[in-house]
Amino acid sequence: MTAIPGRPATRRRPLTLPQAASDGGAAEAARSNLQRAEAEYKSQLDALKAAAGQANADALSAAAAAASTSGRLPADGAAAGPDAGLRARLEAAVQAMQAGLVERDTEVRLLLLAALSGEHILYIGPPGTAKSELGRRLSRLCKGTYFERLLTRFSVPEELFGPLSMRALEEDKYWRQTTGYLPDATVAFVDEIFKANSAILNTLLTLLNERLFDNGATRVPVPLLCLVGASNELPESEELDALYDRFLLRRQVSQVSQAGLLEMLSNGGGRKQALALRSPGTALESSDEDTTFFLTDDDFQNTRERALDAVEVPPSVLQLIADLRSYLQDKCEPPVYVSDRRLVKAVALMQVAAYTSGRGRLAEYDCLLLRHVLWQRPDEAERIYDWLLSNLASNDGMAQMQYLLNGMFGRACKAIGNPAALDSLAGEVGDLRRALTDKLSGIYATMNEGFPAVLGNLWLGQDEAQAVASALLPKLEKTRKEVGDLLFEVATLEVALQSNASALDLAQLLPQRWHAFLR
After folding, report:
1. Residue 200 and residue 316 in one domain
2. Are the C-beta atoms of 215 and 175 separated by less than 8 Å?
3. Which of 162, 320, 333, 390 could form a disulfide with 178 if both were Cys (CB 3.0 to 4.6 A apart)?
4. How far is CA 237 from the centre of its chain?
């Protein structure tokens, strides 16, 4: 028989009841023997229960021990994560971009993540909510050329891409002077971007998606790192759908709250902090050359590729993403369309987020970023958020494990008297116990370390991360109890099999499973 580690397998002597006496003179002796047999059986059953309790305690201890070491980085640093310098620069960049701004924590982090991922971001909201200021601050951080333009329905391509060269026209060449315009920019901010007309759209789409600009007969690469689009409204025509889809990250920007307004109006000292990031074009003084405030070209050009190579995407995360798209497209009314391209880019974005947070493996909690990626209308972001919270702390796989345990219990009842079958079954029950122990270990690690994948995520705002952790904690506690209860039943069945328990023993030890077996 397979034994629980540290405890030898035991064979319990089968209980034999005395034959009933046929004459009245032996009735008292028979009754006495029966009482002794019942006492012996009760003692043996109590021993089984004690052994099962000890086995469960051992499993819980193993889960707690595994949780204390899980998720830790190697002592010499995060081999799969970035160097400590990049993490420090990113944290400094976030703080610098937030300086003097109120309630723009999430907007700042998403913008920086978009730039590191080589993606574009769209802010939707009323004027005067610091949308253009964020773009200026990003260009200051990366020391790049900045371009800004407000579009109208009457805007012409020259406003974005530069005027035609008169000298080139004299030589029968169609060539634009792009210096100082969008094809020359590292960071760009285009307000009212959905006012773009068909004369602008095709060129803009190629520039955003492929980082190429058709200048005359020549297709030239552009240095564009990130384009920040802004609009007061959503696109109204189908011809703008392709442009809308180019913005992987989308964020609705609202006015500051009442409490935030008081802070903003009273924060006179914040002006000094805001001056740390002046408008582009201002000459740097020698004292300003603090490289901790700036990200290098290597950071922006290579972080994404390094993340794609270093960060593993587990099947559980992929399944969660697939389930989310199915929910949005099949169960929401109206359906929320999510393109294949957007999903592929979303996974790459999450890999960058995990890599820059010092992890070599995606966690399901990284999917919280999808609330800023998958919506078509702003109100859908809350649906995505609620669905993710509901599924991140769900008892995933518990129904299957319950089904497995019911099947194993039924097989145990039928295999009594067949040592080979019981030995094989004990091995399967042990595998289930180990799977539950691993699951419980993961729950312990998350709860004991305070949701490190949430609170330690560089790309979730502090208020957002705290809200997520508070929402998930009671759900995770419920899942922990369900896993612990099932683990106790599995440990009990394993001990019973190792002790050569009878059908009566199984019925006494696991009455609910026995009732399910009889049905």
Report:
1. no
2. yes
3. 162
4. 33
Last residue of a domain, one of 228, 261, 294: 261
| Most distant CA atoms of the chain, gap in Å | 133
Nearest to 208 by CA among 180, 244, 234, 155: 244
Helix (H, G, I), strand (E, B) or coil at 451: coil
Residue 459's identity, in one-letter code, is: W
Whether 482 contacts 394, CB under 8 Å: no
Please report which residue ranges of 99-170 form alpha helices under DSSP H: 105-117, 131-141, 157-161, 166-170
Cα distance between residue 103 and residue 130, in whole Å: 10
Q: List the CATH number of the domain containing 236.
A: 3.40.50.300
Q: Which domain holds residue 244?
A: 85-261
What is the Cβ-side half-sphere exposure of residue 438, based on CA atoms within 13 angstroms? 7
126 and 68 fall within a common domain:
no
**Listing from the earlier edge strand, what are the strands of the sheet with 247-252?**
146-150, 187-191, 226-231, 120-124, 247-252
162 Rama sector, left if φ>0, alpha if ψ -120 to 50, beta otherwise: left
Alpha helices in 142-289, H assignment, sequence order: 157-161, 166-170, 198-210, 241-245, 258-266, 270-274
Identify each DSSP E strand in 239-308 by its residue range. 247-252
Token pair listed for 300: 């922006």
pLDDT of residue 24: 61
Two structure tokens written together for 254:
């609202």
Task: Compute the distance between CA of residue 390 and CA of residue 382 in angstroms, rounded to an integer.
Answer: 12
Question: From CA 202, how far away is CA 243, in angstroms rounded?
Answer: 9
The β-bridge partners of 146 are 187
Domain boundary among 193, 227, 261: 261
Instruction: Mark the ranges of the chain whose per-residue pLDDT is less than 50.
Output: 1-8, 10, 15, 17, 20-21, 70-80, 269-270, 272-273, 276-277, 279-292
One domain, residues 324 and 256: no
- In angstroms, the CA 136 to CA 228 distance is 10
The residue whose two tokens read 């030898």 is: 8
In angstroms, what is the C-alpha Rg of the chain?
32
Distance CA 417, CA 473 (A): 46
Residue type, 389: L
> Rounded to 5 degrees, what are φ and ψ at 282?
-75, 130
- Per-residue burial over 246-279, b = 16 or more CB atoms within 10 Å of its CB, e = otherwise: bbbbbbbbeebeeeeeeeeeeeeeeeeebebbee
Block residue for tokens 């949701």: 451
Q: Is residue 212 part of a domain?
A: yes
Domain contains 191: yes
| 3-state secondary structure (DSSP) of residue 312 | strand
Say how far apart CA 128 and CA 229 lie, in whole Å.
15
The tokens describing 155, both together, are 């805007």
| Number of domain units in the chain | 3
If asked whether residues 448 and 491 sit together in one domain, one would say yes
Distance CA 367, CA 379 (A): 18
